[in-house]
Design goal:
Layout lengths: L2 H28 L1 H5 L1 H7 L2 H22 L2 H9 L5 H28 L1 H9 L5 H14 L3 H9 L3 H25 L4 H27 L5 H11 L2 H13 L1 H8 L2 H14 L1 H21 L5 H34 L11 H17 L1 H5 L4 H25 L1 H26 L6 H18 L7 H21 L5 H12 L13
Helix pairs in contact: 1-10, 1-16, 4-13, 4-15, 5-6, 5-9, 5-12, 6-8, 6-11, 6-12, 7-8, 8-11, 10-11, 13-20, 14-15, 14-20, 14-21, 15-18, 15-21, 16-17, 16-18, 17-18, 17-22, 17-23, 18-21, 20-21, 22-23
Length: about 500
């Protein structure tokens, strides 16, 4: 490859990384409401109310997966298959019209029969009014996802972030007004969601049709269904793995247990939001280029080791300090959640490994193997939910999540190695993980009333983790050199990209 081509690749690489980084910010902003509102939700809602909100959200999520037919996920792929702007606009317009029609029809019927849904989920129809508001909100939200996908397709990254930011501000403002000022409780949360979806969905729908025109193509609709409908199975599988345990908890325990577990899971998912998602937003684009290089094996191996190590380190810090964080942010009825967060963190360490070990399957386009792994994990998850949640409640749900995610990782790695063998450094990862688990267990034995002394001791535990790894030979000599250089001069972070063992 000549110098001109290399420079071109570097330019494209920086562009992809820059765009991906901006989109990650937008996605993170869109998910921040749940975290920013934790102190308000937990101080103005009892755990049972928090559990009701969780089940309302999850129920609409699974319905959306079933009726959405993967349209939003198919839009991007079909959009870039055509260069003609008229066809591209037809794809966006058709998908948006389809989504609005389907959502209005299905969620409209569900709103009309919300008492039946309430009986199915809660065993009584007292919450039918909540479902009514939630389903109406989903009708308005139909005009949000396709337009945001359209912005990404046009590489309007700044607009993408701005829209998500405005939505965040509106939701936060309305939540504070309805929950804190008017003290509407659950209704306050639902009213704020309804109004923000109406405003943002209405604006995005009108602006999108203004850009694309209002036209519906049967041909494009069939193409969208062809691409999107197979994704329903994998999406449902991912949903079951991640969220089905809330329904088991509601059946075997109560809404209070659902609320506490949901809060713990929200903190545990910070691993995905702040570590895994930003990295894989970039890596999923770059791995196909890396696979063609002569040093592909080494690069995949090193990236797996370093990304997993950073995930473990983040989980260690979160798990050690989460008792203090939850005590500061929430009232006492929610404090039990801090005991469950480390278990969820372990599950998401396995998620990070799964995302990376699946690279071989994606590179060789044998995506059916991912479906096999997911199906096996879903079966294990359902069985473990039956066995563990009935005995141990929220703890059982957390351990079932760990077990099913671990099974998915094992089978995915097995299938992937047969298609694209990579010698990952499992011994390094396992030793780093076991040391982190040991330190978390030690941190749980600390019982000192003075919070400042507690924070100092826990900080020493985190530092000891790095010191033990550094002096025990976990890091290779050249990695130690890089670490020393980074400590003395943080500006040399680029040297991390030049490790050559």
């Amino acid at each position: 490859m000549n110098t001109e081509n290399i420079n071109t690749d570097k330019t494209n690489y920086r562009k992809i990384l820059g765009q991906s980084s901006i989109y990650v910010i937008g996605i993170m902003i869109s998910k921040l409401v749940g975290f920013v509102m934790i102190p308000i939700y937990t101080n103005y809602l009892v755990p049972a109310d928090y559990g009701i909100l969780e089940l309302l959200t999850l129920t609409t999520d699974i319905i959306t997966i079933l009726i959405g037919a993967g349209l939003a996920q198919a839009v991007m792929r079909l959009y870039f298959e055509h260069k003609d702007r008229i066809i591209q606009n037809s794809i966006i317009s058709t998908s948006l019209i389809s989504s609005i029609f389907i959502f209005t029809l299905i969620f409209g019927l569900l709103a009309y029969k919300s008492d039946l849904v309430s009986n199915l989920i809660f065993g009584y129809d007292d919450e039918s009014n909540y479902f009514n508001l939630t389903f109406i909100t989903m009708i308005f939200s139909a005009g949000i996802e396709i337009p945001l996908t359209f912005l990404r397709a046009k590489q309007k990254s700044i607009s993408f972030v701005f829209i998500n930011f405005i939505k965040l501000v509106i939701q936060l403002s309305l939540n504070i007004y309805f929950i804190v000022v008017l003290e509407y409780g659950i209704l306050g949360v639902l009213y704020s969601g309804l109004i923000s979806s109406f405003l943002i969905g209405g604006y995005l729908t009108i602006s999108t049709f203004y850009s694309t025109g209002f036209n519906f193509s049967i041909l494009r609709f069939k193409q969208l269904l062809h691409f999107g409908s197979p994704l329903i199975i994998s999406n449902i599988g991912a949903f079951i793995l991640t969220f089905s345990d809330r329904y088991f908890l509601n059946y075997y325990s109560d809404l209070t247990e659902v609320g506490i577990y949901s809060l713990a899971y929200k903190f545990g998912m910070l691993v995905s939001l702040l570590v895994l998602s930003p990295f894989y937003q970039y890596w999923t684009s770059e791995m196909f280029l890396v696979a063609k290089r002569n040093d592909a094996q080494k690069t995949f191996r090193d990236m797996f080791t370093y990304s997993t190590f950073l995930t473990i380190l983040f989980c260690l810090v979160l798990s050690i300090f989460i008792p203090e964080v939850i005590k500061i942010l929430t009232p006492e009825p929610y404090w039990k959640a801090s005991e469950i967060v480390p278990i969820i963190c372990l599950a998401y360490i396995f998620v990070g490994m799964f995302n990376f070990t699946s690279c071989g399957i994606l590179i060789t386009k044998k995506t059916r193997l991912l479906a096999y792994s997911t199906i096996i994990a879903v079966f294990v998850n359902i069985c473990m939910n039956f066995l563990l949640i009935s005995k141990w409640g929220a703890y059982g749900a957390a351990y079932a999540t760990v077990g099913s995610f671990f099974i998915r990782l094992i089978f995915t790695n097995y299938f992937s190695q047969k298609e694209f063998p990579i010698k990952y450094e499992w011994s390094r990862i396992i030793s780093a993980c076991f040391l982190a688990i040991s330190l978390v267990i030690i941190s749980r034995q600390i019982s000192i009333e003075n919070i400042y002394i507690t924070l100092i001791i826990k900080s020493m535990l985190v530092i000891s983790y790095l010191v033990i790894l550094f002096f025990s030979g976990w890091f290779y000599p050249n990695e130690k050199i890089v670490i020393k250089n980074l400590i003395s001069n943080p500006g040399k972070i680029r040297s991390l990209m030049k490790l050559n063992r």
